[in-house]
Amino acid sequence: MAFWKQFVLSLIVIIAGFAAWVFFAPGAGDMMRDAGIPESLVSKIVPKAEMTADSDAPAGAQGQRRGEGQGQNRRSGGGRNSAILVAIEAVVQGVVNDRLNAIGTGDAIRSVVVTPQASGTIREILIKSGDRVKAGQVLAKLDSEEQVIARGQADVAVRAAVEKSNLYHNIKSSVSRMDVFDSEIAEQGARLQLQAAELNLARRDIVAPIDGIVGIVPVNIGDNVTTTTPIVTLDDRSEILVDFWVPERFANTVAVGQPVEAMSVAKPGQMFAGVIEAVDNRIDAASRTLRLRARIDNSSDELRAGMSFSVSMKFPGDKYPAVDPQSVQWDSQGSFVWQVTDDKSHKVRVSIVQRNPDSILVKADLKDGDKIVTQGLQRVREGGAVRVSADVAANAEVATQ
Question: Do the beta carbons of residue 280 and residue 289 sit within 8 Å?
Fold first, then answer.
């Protein structure tokens, strides 16, 4: 086919398609006007087509088409000065850093590993695991025959020295003063030897240095022990010390004497009250945490040393405005929210402090009761008019009360 024939055929197809679009497409006139076609030309082409289409359609369809046209006018050109429907929510106060939870390990307030003060063979064990003992109570005894003999010898030496000293004092006129002095020195030396013998004999008894509860006894009668051999462990668990670590942001918040609550894994649901016993003097550089020690009353003897505890503390905390997570928007300058004042929307810059499941704590120029847009954000503009449905407005008023 010749080129000019192809060109004419294509032109006819284009004109036919344009005519069909003008006659059958709703709103063709508006689209032509938006494209820049003069109004005089549009009025000559479109009105007849639209009138023809409207006259052929039923009355209900004509009303529906007019309603759609009015809705499009409201959404486009005719709705620029109308208010945008949005949903709002009132700002409330949120608290951050008001509670601390940590895991700690318990220890007895006093714990001692008892070892002998002398070497020897265990002759007698006077306690068993679980016994409560008092300070000074004998726990076990070592063989002491040599020490008994040594004390007897020292006692004899003391009596002899005392007799000689008394004799020299009675016959001062017959002996020199030096002999009297030597007898007194000999008496004092004998007495010191007796004290040493009695001390060595006393050290054959292994005694409890504190009040406490006996652990498992790892030795038996007949065992040879030295001064480094553990005989038994004593725990004074009338109170339990719990060591735990907290983030460094609490370093200036915690102090000695603050109340704490602890719950043991062995006692789920049961809280034990206590106070802060000690605060470490430095932050651990590796973990960026601060070590604390709490003291918990255990007069009921329900807790044991070595238990793990979930420790919690309450603080006044820092208060910040809390907004709905959906309300926070972002642009090239950072995060912001839309605040509604006098039915106008205004952009308020915010800095996020903490994200919670149901709210976001922000640092911003907001106060309790301020209305923040949560829905309909896509069409909100700075200074634009907005309107809130009666139900949404009522809910916002209730939230501020």
Answer: no
- What is this structure's pTM? 0.57
Please report, for residues 17, 97, 267, 328, 354, the alpha-carbon distance to residue 333 in angstroms, rounded to integers and kept in the order given.
Answer: 48, 28, 52, 13, 19
- pLDDT tens-place string over residues 347-373: 999 999 888 888 888 999 898 889 999
Contact 315, 246 (CB under 8 A): no
Which domains are assigned to the chain?
A: 3-79 (no CATH), 84-96+319-400 (2.40.420.20), 99-138+211-315 (2.40.30.170), 144-203 (1.10.287)
| Three-state secondary structure call for residue 263 | strand
**How far apart are alpha carbons 194 and 192 in whole angstroms?**
5
pLDDT at residue 64 greater than cutoff 60: no
User: What amino acid occupies position 100?
Assistant: L
Instruction: Give me the residues paired with residue 243 across strands.
Output: 105, 293
| Cα gap 193→139, rounded to integer Å | 27
Q: Could you tell me if 91 and 370 are in contact, meaning their C-beta atoms sit under 8 angstroms apart?
A: yes
Buried b (16+ CB within 10 A) or exposed e, 121-149: ebeebebeeebebeeeeebbbbebeebee
How long a stretch of residues is the chain?
Answer: 401
Task: List, in order, residues 6 or more apart from 399 with CB less than 8 Å away.
Answer: 89, 90, 92
In one-letter notation, the amino acid at residue 209 is: P
Pair 175, 168: CB distance under 8 Å: yes
Which residue is it, tokens 């909100």? 380
Give the residue ranges of DSSP H helices in 57-144. Answer: 59-75
**Cα–Cα dist 39/22, whole Å:** 15
pLDDT digits (tens, 9 = 90+) for 231-252: 999 999 999 999 999 998 888 8
Judged by average pLDDT, the poorest of 26-30, 211-215, 378-382 is: 26-30
